[in-house]
């Protein structure tokens, strides 16, 4: 199997995945200051965490994501095993834009059901503005959905 290459995708750098790069917060609407939209202007000096350690679900070895799910094409970044719930790995999907397109979201939900892996996916609120904090929607067993909803209502984040 050929190793998948990120380029020309820069979704993680362009703010769709929340992170902090050397003191600069990156979030929807606020890209990494080193992102050119086509790559990194300081790639040789990128920090190990989070840049080198970032595990885009499309690029990881033996990724179950199909070719068409490359983040820049499918408009979603998938992070596998982002946290655990009752011993199960929970996957996180964040949109490259305001919402995950239906084709990609349907694929992720079907994968979650087939593999028995709960899913949390993020969306922007419907007012048209990009916000740092997004709505988290839980997909999986009712107890998982209730627990995620309760924690989000209390302002807790289940993943780092």
In short:
The chain has 160 residues and is an alpha+beta fold. The chain has helices spanning 48-52, 71-74, 102-115, 142-153, and strands spanning 19-21, 24-26, 76-85, 88-95, 119-123, 135-139.
What does this structure look like?
The chain has about 160 residues and is of the alpha+beta class. Helix content is about 20%, strand content about 20%. The strands form 2 sheets. Strands 3-4-5-6 form a 4-stranded mixed sheet. It has a two-stranded antiparallel sheet with strand order 1-2. A hairpin with a 2-residue loop joins strand 1 and strand 2. The longest helix is centred in the last third of the chain and has 14 residues. The chain starts with 18 loop residues before the first strand and ends in a 7-residue tail after the last helix. The model has no long low-confidence stretch (mean pLDDT about 90).
The N- and C-terminal alpha carbons lie at a distance of: 31 Å
Q: How much is the average pLDDT?
A: 91
Question: What helical percentage do the residues reach?
Answer: 10-25%
Strands of the largest sheet, in order across it?
3-4-5-6
Number of helices: 4
Number of strands: 6
The unreliable regions are none
Sheet/helix structural class: alpha+beta
Q: Could you tell me the radius of gyration in angstroms?
A: 15 Å
Helix-strand string: EEHHEEHEEH
Largest sheet: 4 strands, mixed
Shape category: globular
The portion of residues forming beta strands comes to: 15-25%
């Amino acid at each position: 199997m050929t190793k998948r290459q990120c380029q020309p995708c820069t979704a993680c750098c362009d703010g769709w995945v929340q992170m902090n790069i050397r003191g600069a917060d990156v979030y929807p609407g606020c890209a990494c200051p080193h992102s050119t939209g086509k790559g990194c202007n300081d790639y040789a000096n990128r920090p190990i965490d989070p840049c080198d350690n970032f595990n885009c679900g499309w690029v990881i070895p033996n990724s179950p994501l199909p070719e068409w799910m490359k983040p820049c094409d499918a408009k979603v970044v998938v992070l596998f095993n982002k946290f655990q719930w009752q011993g199960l790995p929970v996957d996180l999907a964040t949109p490259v834009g305001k919402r995950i397109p239906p084709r990609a979201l349907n694929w992720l939900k079907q994968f979650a059901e087939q593999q028995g892996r709960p899913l949390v996916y993020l969306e922007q609120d419907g007012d048209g503005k990009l916000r740092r904090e997004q709505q988290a929607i839980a997909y999986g067993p009712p107890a998982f959905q209730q627990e995620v909803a309760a924690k989000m209502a209390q302002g807790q984040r289940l993943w780092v």
